[in-house]
Amino acid sequence: MSGIYIHIPFCKQACHYCDFHFSTQLQRKEEMVRMLKIELEQRKNFLPQTTPVQTIYLGGGTPSLLSEKEMESIVNTIHQHYALDLKEFTLEANPDDLQIDKLKTFKSFGVDRLSIGIQSFDDKVLKFYNRAHNSQESLKAIDLAKGAGFDKLSIDLIYGFPYDNHNIWEKDLQRALFLDPGHISSYGLTIEPQTALGNWLKKGKFKEASEEFQATQFEMLQKAMSESGYVQYEISNFGKVGKFALHNTNYWMGIPYLGIGPSAHSFDGKSRGYNIANNALYNRAIQKGGTPYQIDNLSKQDLVNEYILSSLRTIWGCSMGKLKNDFGVLLDEQEVHKLEKQGMLRLNSGNIVLTDKGKLLADTIAAALFIEV
Q1: What is the DSSP letter of 27?
Q2: pTM to 2 decimals?
């Protein structure tokens, strides 16, 4: 199987925490869609021809800003140039964009999973983040999406807002689980240097939450999800059985995917590459008949360590059998048993799986298991 990711690099306004690639110049959206369609045609042979595309993901940016005509032209281009056996078609959306007519349009084009950027149900927090929606729009969007027949919903939440207690986060969790979308992705607030929050932090106008504060909220998240029947199938992703997000799961499993649009990444199983994160330069390259794509060829060490890093994030864990059979690699048994004694991981039928305690230090544990060739 394989997947296609398409980056829609436009937003109404810049969230204060976001360092993803986007532009607020919405008048350039139609031109960008034309370039995305050209790149889809140019790179139609990137994915293995023997495996049909099973997942499509429209991310960004804000894909829900696409007009019906723009959405239709992208979908038609995919159908024209790719063999499809679709199991999941995801579209990221902001609550303020989701009206009933638009939801019906998305559904008519095959979208069957909506990923809605809620982030918080607290209006003061949303205003601080510079989100374009309020809490009432979030509630309405989820209700409309369910009414339009979207039974695969995901909502995003951010924890770690630097408040003097955990009340806001506790209320966010209660509201999210009451709405019961079936899938919840949750990430700690990260302060990136090139964002508004990064600038405020540098100038002393903002103080981020401590690691201990974020760790406590992560543990609150784990407990609340588990008690409500949500499985932590990846460190930041929780879903009810049958509701796991397939496209993102394939990333962690090392399934090949094609990334289209400025800043989009791709992986063919042996190399990883990325498009330039600049709309004007991206468009110029496409117009000249080229692809603004740079390739990083991966060594055996790279492939093994990427697999260890990504697989440990999942409920299925890191398969020692796969490492041996696919790469001829055996992990350091002493390091594995040391981490097991520390309560960081457990062995399950030949797989290394992180404990709840280990999930707090996933990257550190993965680094301890990395190989050198």
Answers
A1: G
A2: 0.95
Dihedral angle computed from the Cα positions of residues 242, 245, 250 and 252, in that order, rounded to the nearest 10 degrees: -110
Nearest to 86 by CA among 116, 55, 108, 63: 55
| Residues 6+ positions from 142 with CB-CB distance below 8 Å | 95, 116, 153, 155, 179, 181
Distance of alpha carbon 274 from alpha carbon 267, whole angstroms: 9
| 109 Cβ contact list (under 8 Å, min separation 6) | 71, 72, 75, 89
* Tally: H helices and E strands in the chain: 15, 15
DSSP β-ladder status, 183-188 and 237-239: antiparallel
DSSP letter string over 94-126? Answer: -GGG--HHHHHHHHHTT--EEEEEEE-S-HHHH
Q: How confident is the model at residue 289 (pLDDT cuts 50, 70, 90)?
A: confident
Are the CB atoms for 79 and 41 separated by under 8 Å? no
pLDDT of amino acid 49: 76
What is residue 141's predicted lDDT score, i.e. its pLDDT?
97
Residue with tokens 């397939």, as numbered in its chain? 246
Question: What is the C-alpha to C-alpha distance for residues 3 and 57, in angstroms, rounded to an integer?
Answer: 8
DSSP E strand stretches across 244-363? 257-260, 265-267, 271-275, 293-297, 318-319, 345-348, 351-354
What confidence category does residue 187 fall into, taking pLDDT thresholds of 50, 70 and 90? Answer: very high
99 touches 110 (CB < 8 A): no
Residue type, 360: L
pLDDT score for 292:
85
Distance in angstroms (rounded) separating the CA atoms of residues 307 and 254: 7
Q: 221, 138, 131: which is closest to 174 by C-alpha?
A: 221
User: For strand 231-234 and strand 237-239, is the pairing parallel, antiparallel, or unpaired?
Assistant: antiparallel
Residue 169: per-residue pLDDT: 98
Distance CA 343, CA 324 (A): 25
DSSP string, 175-209: HHHHH--SEEEEEE----TTSHHHHHHHTTS--PP
Contact 147, 100 (CB under 8 A): yes
- Calpha distance 112→131 (Å, rounded): 25
Q: Distances in Å between the alpha carbon of 243 and those of 104, 199, 222, 252, 285?
A: 21, 38, 17, 16, 39
- Tell me if the bond preceding 317 is cis, omega within 30° of 0: no
